[in-house]
Amino acid sequence: MRKLTKKAIAQLFPQLKQDANKYTRGTCELVVGDRNFPGAGVLATMAATRMGSGYVKAYTSDEAAAALRIVQPSAVIASFKQYGVECHAQDDLHPSATVVGCGLAGTEGNMTLVKSVIAAAAVPLVLDGGALTAIATESGFAALADHRLNGFSAILTPHGGEAARLIAALPVDAEVADDLHDPARQALRIARAYDAVCVLKGPQTYIASPDDAGAKDVAVYADGTPALAKAGTGDVLAGCIGALLAQGLSPRDAAELGVVIHGEAGVLAAEKLGAFCVTTEDVLRFIPKAVKEIVK
Ligand SMILES: NC(=O)C1=CN([C@@H]2O[C@H](COP(=O)(O)OP(=O)(O)OC[C@H]3O[C@@H](n4cnc5c(N)ncnc54)[C@H](OP(=O)(O)O)[C@@H]3O)[C@@H](O)[C@H]2O)[C@@H](O)CC1
Ligand SMILES: Nc1ncnc2c1ncn2[C@@H]1O[C@H](COP(=O)(O)OP(=O)(O)O)[C@@H](O)[C@H]1O
């Protein structure tokens, strides 16, 4: 397995060009934060804005919109149903990506929403939370397969529980079943079956691509901190990865860089505040310090 370190990923960082405008810096759109989980939508949107995307637009509930207008007024806001009508197309000069699922519970309405977003998105996707529930169904799986056939990539960001659900939805493969206690092999199984980069989160985070030849190609990040074991840190990670994807990084590079910056933000927050007291909001606040530390 390849160990991810700050030093190893520093060169992946997107360049901020002198002649940049907000669109050349990448549009990150997010379909996040239903009325029961507005906080997850706010956290993911704030993280995407912090992680360098030039234009951030949240398609969200009224509840999350009200909060975002106060804590992140630079974010452009729209309702869920506007995604299919307004979502950005991309070209080489104007990259874009969409994050979907943070703070979307597994209701029928949300599952329909996720599938319609996957069908409408002509951009790379980050699928988290409720979007992972949606693709573990036959129709959700088919929507993702069509997205891939249309030439667009996807990154899946499951925690252990979500990974178990993604694997349970697959046909049983006796050859690989024995290996699935190993998280690197779980990540690889998910990446290959769903044809997407898999970021399997936990105390150690494993990143696998569909074309990895075996577990030896899976990357592992093990330098994080249990300070990150707090509700909402996964939503921050999804926003970070989405923003990097929106700046034109490859799915694998965006995933690896996002995981290391997020982990380092947790470590720096823990150093400053003590691991016990670190909040998810502190992790957001320490992202700039983590970026400076990595690109120094
Ligand atoms: N502020 C907000 O608005 C927030 C909103 N949020 C939103 O909530 C939605 C639901 O997400 P969710 O993760 O809370 O619930 P769910 O998908 O049911 O999974 C939990 C089950 O999985 C299992 N499990 C196994 N391994 C695990 C692991 N390593 N890490 C965690 N769990 C693990 C675990 O079982 P255990 O092993 O603990 O018995 C448990 O039974 C989602 O849309 C998300 O974005 C949150 O982000 C929080 C902040
Ligand atoms: N003990 C730990 N050590 C290091 N990182 C952790 C630990 N526990 C959780 N994390 C990290 O915190 C984040 C939690 O994400 P997730 O489980 O999706 O939470 P949520 O859905 O509440 O946002 C992941 O990036 C994970 O790798």
TrEMBL record:
Cofactor requirements of the protein: Mg(2+)
Transmembrane segments: none
Binding site residues for AMP: 201-205, 234
Catalytic activity: (6S)-NADHX + ADP = AMP + phosphate + NADH + H(+); (6S)-NADPHX + ADP = AMP + phosphate + NADPH + H(+)
EC numbers on record: 4.2.1.136
One record GO biological process: nicotinamide nucleotide metabolic process
Example of a GO MF term: ATP binding
Record keywords, A-Z: ATP-binding, Lyase, NAD, NADP, Nucleotide-binding
Ligand binding ((6S)-NADPHX): 40, 103, 159, 235
Domain YjeF C-terminal: 5-294
First-tier enzyme category under EC: lyase
One Pfam family hit: Carb_kinase
Recorded family membership: Belongs to the NnrD/CARKD family.
Cited function: Catalyzes the dehydration of the S-form of NAD(P)HX at the expense of ADP, which is converted to AMP. Together with NAD(P)HX epimerase, which catalyzes the epimerization of the S- and R-forms, the enzyme allows the repair of both epimers of NAD(P)HX, a damaged form of NAD(P)H that is a result of enzymatic or heat-dependent hydration.
Known partners and oligomeric status: Homotetramer.
HAMAP family according to UniProt: NADHX_dehydratase (MF_01965)
Protein name: ADP-dependent (S)-NAD(P)H-hydrate dehydratase
Originating species: Slackia equolifaciens
Gene this chain is encoded by: nnrD
